[in-house]
């Protein structure tokens, strides 16, 4: 390999995804999936669409889905962009909107795809450290920048930023694109969508993978001023003019319309989270305040790496990150109450040993 190519390859650090093992009976609390499954109406819609119409290309504009999303959020279809999971929407966003002459700001610690995409698309970045309680200090963002990206709630901490903080950022940076990644917002966070009508520099990204339990379908979307959306469409059309397959469009449209299922599942998850927090605090875990479908916890005396391994031996899978500042923490997705009970029982056994 020539030196030129090996330099490029060594600079590209791929995102390391959570494990997806195919072991039956595993309590899988490692990738923030929703335990309740997608809307039964959406599954039925996919079934109804599974016939010889699959020989036809899908609607390249995903019109029905974009209209359903627009109606759900009080926007127009021109303010909606859809893609294969919010990871793909984020990729197009990095390419189209975050690649300025001025740097992109994001928190350190945050969703680890941001550094990966920044490297991939040559985006200059400044990482802004969280404070000693893993909160964002907004005054630290008071510097020249071309764009800001923040997950709200943050990942993997689960800590949410109040809407007033986001509005302050938008107002302080009228010339910068501010991207709010709301993958987990439906579990108690405050959505920035109501600010879209007043801030043309705001792009909100959401996913069907978490609160709508459709991680396997791969559908995410961006909401914002039509000019920002148009930038994403141009990148998408230059990359692959079919954003979503036929079945994904049908299933996602039905899922977005099934508000009752969405509401029931997200409420159950919030209640289970509150119960699990109490149980883990009683076992001497520090639990960061979470507004997500996961919690980020560290034990008062047991190392994170040992706890993760001991849980794995007991068929409970959780996530841990290698970065030194957070390597003692375990990120635990909120499962069903039965799954949470198995986790707690396993932890009690481990801590008693
Ligand atoms: N943003 C954040 C903060 C996430 O944690 C995730 C899930 N790993 C995503 C976006 C991407 O989710 P998806 O591609 O499934 O929509």
From TrEMBL:
CDD domains for the chain: AAT_like (cd00609)
**Which PROSITE patterns has this protein been placed in?**
AA_TRANSFER_CLASS_2
Q: What class of enzyme is it?
A: transferase
Recorded metabolic or biological pathway in which this protein acts? Amino-acid biosynthesis; L-histidine biosynthesis; L-histidine from 5-phospho-alpha-D-ribose 1-diphosphate: step 7/9
Residue ranges of the Aminotransferase class I/classII large domain?
Answer: 26-347
Q: Please list the residues that carry the modification N6-(pyridoxal phosphate)lysine.
A: 210
Q: Which Gene3D superfamilies match?
A: Aspartate Aminotransferase, domain 1, Type I PLP-dependent aspartate aminotransferase-like (Major domain)
Q: What does the record give as EC number?
A: 2.6.1.9
Provide the assembly information. Answer: Homodimer.
NCBIfam families assigned to the protein according to its UniProt record, in alphabetical order: hisC
The name this protein carries in UniProt is Histidinol-phosphate aminotransferase
């Amino acid at each position: 390999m020539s030196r030129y190519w090996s330099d490029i390859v060594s600079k590209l650090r791929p995102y390391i995804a959570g494990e997806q093992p195919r072991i039956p009976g595993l309590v899988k609390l490692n990738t923030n999936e929703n335990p309740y499954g997608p809307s039964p109406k959406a599954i039925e819609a996919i079934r109804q669409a599974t016939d010889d119409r699959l020989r036809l290309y899908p609607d390249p504009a995903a019109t029905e889905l974009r209209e359903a999303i627009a109606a759900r959020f009080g926007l127009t279809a021109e303010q909606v962009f859809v893609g294969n999971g919010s990871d793909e929407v984020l990729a197009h966003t990095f390419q189209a909107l975050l690649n300025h002459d001025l740097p992109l700001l994001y928190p350190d610690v945050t969703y680890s795809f941001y550094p990966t995409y920044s490297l991939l698309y040559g985006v200059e970045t400044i990482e802004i450290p969280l404070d000693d309680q893993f909160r964002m200090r907004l005054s630290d963002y008071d510097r020249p920048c071309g764009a800001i990206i923040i997950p709200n709630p943050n990942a993997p901490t689960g800590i949410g930023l109040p809407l007033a903080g986001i509005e302050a950022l938008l107002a302080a940076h009228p010339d910068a694109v501010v991207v709010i990644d709301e993958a987990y917002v439906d579990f108690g966070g405050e959505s920035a969508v109501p600010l879209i009508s007043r801030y043309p520099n705001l792009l909100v990204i959401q996913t069907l993978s978490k609160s709508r339990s459709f991680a396997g379908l791969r559908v995410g979307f961006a909401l914002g001023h039509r000019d920002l959306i148009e930038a994403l469409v141009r990148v998408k059309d230059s990359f692959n003019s079919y954003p979503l397959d036929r079945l994904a469009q049908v299933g996602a449209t039905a899922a977005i319309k099934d508000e009752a299922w969405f509401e029931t599942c997200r409420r159950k998850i919030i209640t289970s989270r509150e119960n699990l927090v109490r149980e883990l605090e009683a076992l001497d875990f520090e639990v960061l305040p979470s507004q997500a479908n996961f919690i980020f916890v560290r034990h008062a005396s047991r190392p994170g790496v040992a706890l993760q391994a001991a849980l794995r031996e007991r068929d409970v899978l959780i996530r841990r990150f290698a970065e030194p500042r957070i390597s003692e923490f375990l990120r635990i997705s909120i499962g069903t109450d039965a799954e949470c009970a198995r986790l707690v029982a396993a932890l009690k056994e481990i801590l008693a040993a």
